[in-house]
């Protein structure tokens, strides 16, 4: 006797189960009994059904999606075919009339070949596709929550890549996540309890004090790292959890452990929706519902147990001991190549759904159980944290707060996390200081104890023209650091863990103390060995302007790395920009000789102001002379004549000018050098403040680059 395989869907009835419900859920309970009763008969006709066990609890949450359609348009600028105009566009359909539903307590797995639309569907359900680009509806208990703040509060999205700070331990990583996702009103002891519960739930107790690690630091295993990534996003106990291929790159055992953790999360009352690529037989047993996609179309929707029956009706029997998912995924491309293509699969799936369920996807789209308001209140009362909000605060999608904590608290936590991770990598600071020391010693040996001759003055100018852009170039190590952090920033801000402004402020605050040591080392070595003037007062200002230059350079590099999220391109743009700034800073071409159409760049150049500041600090002394008597002939055609001839020429020059000029007469002071360089408009303190302000200005530009340039959604 062949058992009719009926598809279990989200059950919302209350009270005694109907006969249809008993038959519908029969398969799932038989599976459970088979794992608990060792001597159970394999004959389905003699299986014992425990009626009391089939009393299904009311489903509190149903995520339904209907007729989802998503297309992208790409231009064809290099198509020289005569059949199409050069500027014609290519439209590709990534999702085509996809429908389905997922319930709390269940895992919905989205499968398909590469390019079938798995990740696109997960992004669409998670609100990561621009609203104007996605057609169809996504509802939670009948209410449209797509693109709403409520969805961000009650859901979580786990990306495919493990984006974590390498030098934080597992416990610290989850603790910082709790600081972001749980409100400040929660006592620290409660947050720690939640972290410990998540550690136990994820099976990470033995690794809680182990650092995450990276290529250069030994840390947790790949499977443990993936579970930590999941733990970050479930710290607030979300109602809906989306995951993009959580088992990708893991071995069979690690992948099974990850899905086993997801099963426990679902059983705690969450909806789990994930994409997965060729799951093992053990993983299939943990899945509740499947959606198989082909070229963006839904070719199967049902439980794993119903898939063999589905394929049998289609005319393809699964061989014994064959992995049913692998068989189906291998079969779909073959059917795609037929004359009917994917359409035959889609039509057969729709017909099979109607014949076996008597219910279409659209009819099941709106649940008849609890409203979203009632379900959230019930869920919170049963222990769901939902970012610490009470059910009353989540009763309306319009009244949900975007962020859990105030901005200053976010800034403090971000700065604390960054500093803790940075302090545990002393090689970074050590390498920076070592490079600064090598550069400073090189300059010290080249420009050792410069004198006050015309050559000494010229060498001082070249020294200052070198050190200012060098402080900018020494900040290039910030490029890879931020670009690596950028993806962590995108992941965390996608779910409103903190504000972009809080991130920028914390990033700026932690940068300030990091620049103190390099500035002091560089200034201490070069100031005294080169023989710069000013004594202690001049040294203090020299330290300040070097620090301001590092700050401005760090801000420029940070802004460009935020604007250009590619390491090599960021290096190229930064180097080119600093070179342009140096060219128009006033050293190579003085201000009065810069073409009028480029003079604007001279004034916005961040290199101009620290360069002028160090020159003023060095040469702003009318009593200091750099050209005396016969030194006026140095560097000219007369520089090679004898000193006697130079004295005679000087006397002749005195007679012609009617002014007594001797070998001790000062002909050019430091102030004259400043005038010659066109540095007469600002004081050194003005230049210092402008340099500091330019660093702040580029941090503001960095904020807008992140705010408008970091796309968390598909367009």
From TrEMBL:
One GO MF term: ATP hydrolysis activity
TM ranges are 429-450, 462-483, 504-527, 539-564, 571-590, 688-709
Entry's PROSITE patterns? ABC_TRANSPORTER_1, ABC_TRANSPORTER_2
Q: What is this protein called?
A: ABC transporter G family member 19-like
Q: Which UniProt keywords apply?
A: ATP-binding, Membrane, Nucleotide-binding, Transmembrane, Transmembrane helix, Transport
Q: Which organism is it from?
A: Raphanus sativus
The record, for InterPro entries, names: AAA+_ATPase, ABC2_TM, ABC_transporter-like_ATP-bd, ABC_transporter-like_CS, ABCG_transporters, P-loop_NTPase
The record's Gene Ontology cellular component field reads:
membrane
**Which residue range or ranges hold the ABC transporter domain?**
75-320
Compartment(s) of residence: Membrane
């Amino acid at each position: 006797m062949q058992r009719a395989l009926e598809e279990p869907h989200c059950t919302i009835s209350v009270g005694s189960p109907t006969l249809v419900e008993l038959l519908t859920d029969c398969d799932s309970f038989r599976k459970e009994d088979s794992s608990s009763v060792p001597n159970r008969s394999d004959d389905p006709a003699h299986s014992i059904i425990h009626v009391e066990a089939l009393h299904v609890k009311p489903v509190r949450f149903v995520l339904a999606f209907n007729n989802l359609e998503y297309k992208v348009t790409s231009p064809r600028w290099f198509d020289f075919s005569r059949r199409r105009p050069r500027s014609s566009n290519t439209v590709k359909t990534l999702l085509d009339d996809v429908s389905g539903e997922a319930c709390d307590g269940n895992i919905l797995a989205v499968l398909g070949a590469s390019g079938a639309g798995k990740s696109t569907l997960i992004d669409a359900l998670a609100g990561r596709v621009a609203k104007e680009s996605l057609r169809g509806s996504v509802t939670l208990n009948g209410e449209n929550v797509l693109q709403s703040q409520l969805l961000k509060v009650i859901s979580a999205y786990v990306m495919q890549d493990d984006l974590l700070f390498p030098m934080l331990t597992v416990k610290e990583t989850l603790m910082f996540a709790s600081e972001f996702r749980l409100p400040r009103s929660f006592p620290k002891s409660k947050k720690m309890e939640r972290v410990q519960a998540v550690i136990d739930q994820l099976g990470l107790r033995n690794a809680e004090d182990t650092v995450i690690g990276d290529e250069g630091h030994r840390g947790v295993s790949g499977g443990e790292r993936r579970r930590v990534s999941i733990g970050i996003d479930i710290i607030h106990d979300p109602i809906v959890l989306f995951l993009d291929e959580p088992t990708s790159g893991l071995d069979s055992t690690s992948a099974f452990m990850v899905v086993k953790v997801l099963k426990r999360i679902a059983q705690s009352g969450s909806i789990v929706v994930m994409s997965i690529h060729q799951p093992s037989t053990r993983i299939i047993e943990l899945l509740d519902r499947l959606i198989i996609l082909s070229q963006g179309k839904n070719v199967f929707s049902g439980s794993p147990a119903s898939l063999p029956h589905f394929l049998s009706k289609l005319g393809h029997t699964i061989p014994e001991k064959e992995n049913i998912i692998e068989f189906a995924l291998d079969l779909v491309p073959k059917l795609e190549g037929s004359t009917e293509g994917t359409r035959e699969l889609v039509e057969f799936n729709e017909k099979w759904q109607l014949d076996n369920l008597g219910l279409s996807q659209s009819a099941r789209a709106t649940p008849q159980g609890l409203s979203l308001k009632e379900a959230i209140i019930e869920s919170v009362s049963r222990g769901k944290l939902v970012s610490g909000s009470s059910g009353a605060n989540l009763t309306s999608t319009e009244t949900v707060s975007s962020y859990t904590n105030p901005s200053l608290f976010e800034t403090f936590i971000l700065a604390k996390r960054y500093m803790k991770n940075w302090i545990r990598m002393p090689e970074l600071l050590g390498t920076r200081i070592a490079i600064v020391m090598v550069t400073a010693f090189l300059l010290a040996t080249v420009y050792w104890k410069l004198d006050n001759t015309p050559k000494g003055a010229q060498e001082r100018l070249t020294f200052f023209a070198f050190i200012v852009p060098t402080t900018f170039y020494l900040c290039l190590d910030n490029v890879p650091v931020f670009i690596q952090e950028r993806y962590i920033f995108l992941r965390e801000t996608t779910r409103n863990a903190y504000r972009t402004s809080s991130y920028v402020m914390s990033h700026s605050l932690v940068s300030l103390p990091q620049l103190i040591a390099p500035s002091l080392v560089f200034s201490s070595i070069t100031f005294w060995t080169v023989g710069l003037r000013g004594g202690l007062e001049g040294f203090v200002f020299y330290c300040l302007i070097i620090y301001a230059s590092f700050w401005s350079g760090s801000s420029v590099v940070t802004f460009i790395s935020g604007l250009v999220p590619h390491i090599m391109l960021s290096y190229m743009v930064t180097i080119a920009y600093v070179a342009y700034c140096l060219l128009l800073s006033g050293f190579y071409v003085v201000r009065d000789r810069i073409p009028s159409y480029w003079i604007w760049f001279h004034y916005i150049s961040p290199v101009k102001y620290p360069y002028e500041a160090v020159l003023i600090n060095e040469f702003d002394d009318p009593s200091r002379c750099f050209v005396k008597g016969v030194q006026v002939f140095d560097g000219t055609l007369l520089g090679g004549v004898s000193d006697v001839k130079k004295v005679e020429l000087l006397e002749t020059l005195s007679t012609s000018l009617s002014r007594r000029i001797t070998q001790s007469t000062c002909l050019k002071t430091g102030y004259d050098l400043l005038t010659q360089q066109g540095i007469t408009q600002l004081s050194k303190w003005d230049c210092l403040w402008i340099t500091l302000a330019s660093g702040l200005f580029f941090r503001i530009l960095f904020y807008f680059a992140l705010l408008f340039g970091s796309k968390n959604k598909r367009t």
